[in-house]
Amino acid sequence: MNIQITLEGGFNLLTVGLVARLFGVTAKTLRHYDAIGLFSPARVGKDNLYRLYAPDQLPELRRILFLRSMGLGIEAIRELKRDGTMDDADRIKLLLEERANGLQEEIAAREKQLADIQRMVEYMTFNGGIPMEAKVVELNAFTIVGMAWDSKRSEGDIPGMWQRFLSRRHEIEGKLQPAVTYGICLPGENENFVYIASYETSGDSVPEGMTRVVVPAQRYAVFTHKGLADKLGDTYELIYSRWLSSQGLELVKGIDFERYDERFLGPEAERSELEIYIPIA
């Protein structure tokens, strides 16, 4: 098989097969680079349409393949070529630094995904198909005062609302348990709800921008969430999808809530614990 062609004047051209072998790529890759205008042959045979490359083109191909191996996109490399900056060390350094930053973000995202997967595997292994045992309690009506977040109308999110509320907790009078806070969820129409960060109180005073709610007497199934606050949704999913039904508990429409006491060490503390109260028949 011919791998090198000598034309008149001693000008040696290299076939696509030879160039592909020299650089450890496929001929298909080189044909693709030609089609998109990234790296084209010096000549194309008139009769057989064979792609032929000049030896002095090889350093450029090596740079292109190096930049591709570093994760730079085709368009970024094409721009370097159009601008004549394929040999500009400062420009390439800047592109590589940007790529490195992107990789760091990708690695962080992958590490978070891996941690989530490992946590779910551990969670499923820990449960082993056996649901968490609920504690059933009967609570009398109690009154709370706090700051509300409406899923339909409010801006921001619940964690942000908690921060605003805690900065104003000194304004709430008559706290019955100053070390205990409640996240009260009032069901609305369709999928809407109102969430209230609050304290149980004995008074009628309501600070500006806050609200007062009487939580009616109710029977509850109480579950304990352990770990990060942003994993609370996982526990709720297991409660509603598995744990209630497996223990013969019937869910009723009502106010559910979270109770935060001294066991809650903060939203990002692995050893944090809080109680979840689900209304049942």
TrEMBL record:
Domain of life: Bacteria
Keywords: Coiled coil
Residue ranges annotated for the HTH merR-type domain, each copy included: 13-83
InterPro entries with a match to the protein in the record: AraC_E-bd, DNA-bd_dom_put_sf, GyrI-like, MerR-type_HTH_dom, Reg_factor_effector_dom_sf, YobU-like_regulator
Coiled-coil spans in chain: 86-120
Alphabetical list of Pfam families matching this protein: GyrI-like, MerR_1
PANTHER family for the chain: TRANSCRIPTIONAL REGULATOR PROTEIN YOBU-RELATED
The protein, known as: GyrI-like domain-containing protein
Lineage per the UniProt record: Bacteria, Bacillati, Bacillota, Bacilli, Bacillales
